[in-house]
Amino acid sequence: MAVMMQAFYWDAPKQEKKEHEWWNFVAEKVEELGHAGFNALWLPPVNKAASNTSMGYDPYDYFDLGDFDQKGGKKTWYGNRAELEALIAKAHKNGVGLYADMVINHNGGGDEEEVNPLDGQKRWTKFNPKSGIFARNYNHFHPSRYEQVILEGENFAGYPHLCHRNPEVYAAMYRYARMLIEELGFDGFRFDYAKGFGAWMIGLLAKYLYVKDGKDFVPYVVGEYWSGTDDIEGWLSRVEEFTDNQVAAFDFPLRYKLKDVCDKPNYDLRNLTDGGSVVMKRPRHAATFVDNHDMGTNAIVNDKLMAYSFIMVHEGYPCVFWYDYYNNGLARTGTPNGIDALIEAHHKHAGGDSQILHADPDLYIMQRVGWKDESVDQPGLIYVLNNLGDKWSGTSVKTKWVNQKFVPIAWDGHDEAWPDARTTDGEGNAEFPAPPRGYAIYVPA
């Protein structure tokens, strides 16, 4: 599989003193990120929002990428189109793809209020974007003459809510998606607030046969459906009714389990085995993550690398948060104790099925059985997660390998000591320990 990075956090341009220069700032990092093993970057919304200091989640002009003087200035908070194109080109040169954040339900920054004659309510639904593309009025939003009652989706924070059943809205969203893939060169989409509109819209945008660099192209597509496992399962099933393409969902249920692992003393690690996550039910449809820009005061506070170790060794498409990697200093390049070492373990060893070898309230041990074909050779690994805060912990488990030496390649915890090599016996048994409040990854030598 691959590893992506969410290449921003809330108010990142302000916090990093890179207002209107974020695309250039990220471009400075793509070479090192490619070298570290990141395969793709998820970028924030690229178009002009309700102001030019907005994070972009209140889109105003979908076709102004920072080149029209409106909503406070020319550039978006991240830059302009030329700078974005330069970032994409440099990323691709370094083997790194780009995913565009798609906010296609709620809009902001309307130019005038108007009364919607269908319900007599006044709303900010008059949009006159300077790009000249996709001007809007009340009939482009709910309630509309195309859909008087919202049959699918939810409103968000009182923003005007696009009605995708209006052919002009439908066509504009296709035009926007095609611009991102076919003109700018993006490699996929992350759909924001997927609860806000029908699954059919994502399905159809995913199903469209894009042309990129003169060839048919299928984008990676992942949705933010912030809910429980059953709800996400239902949403994925609805999306699949409209497309044969693989559409993924961010694994919020797993993320909340991992927060409990990190922040709740004596959390029972057996909860990680109960199937209550996307990665356990649909591993090929899971985008796993530890934190993101929306978590705010709900962010993981303690021992966050325990969570990162879990998502890097299991199935799913793991996503690393820029703030953790850079601002929290968890990359720890050149050591076995950080995200960089976990990425290397993911790429080189985390192949094949996951098999839980042991689980009790304080200790979790799993093996990846390995995978090999003409292009991939991942020999597998043993992963140990220790919830005890005061001592190393491990137990003897029966692995698939007999008379095999294992060496530790990544670990961290509340102890500066490091794990040593282990060798299985003639039946595949060996004891694999991990540091207190930490983890260890062992691989065949």
Description of the molecule:
- There is one protein chain.
- By secondary structure, the protein is of the alpha/beta class.
- The protein folds into two domains: 4-250, TIM Barrel, CATH 3.20.20.80; 354-444, Sandwich (Immunoglobulin-like).
- It has eleven helices and 24 strands.
- It is elongated and about 75 Å long.
Strands side by side in the biggest sheet: 1-2-5-8-11-12-13-14
How many angstroms separate the termini?
Answer: 22 Å
Mean pLDDT: 96
Number of strands: 24
Task: Quote the beta fraction.
Answer: 15-25%
Task: State the secondary-structure class.
Answer: alpha/beta
Characterize the main sheet: 8 strands, parallel, barrel
Spell out the CATH superfamily of the largest domain. Answer: Glycosidases
Q: What is the name of the CATH architecture of the largest domain?
A: Alpha-Beta Barrel
Gross morphology: elongated
Secondary structure tally, helices: 11
CATH class of the largest domain: Alpha Beta
Task: Say what the CATH topology of the largest domain is.
Answer: TIM Barrel
Helix content: 25-40%
From the alpha carbons, calculate the radius of gyration and give it in angstroms. 23 Å
Task: Tell me the domain tally.
Answer: 2
Low-confidence parts: none
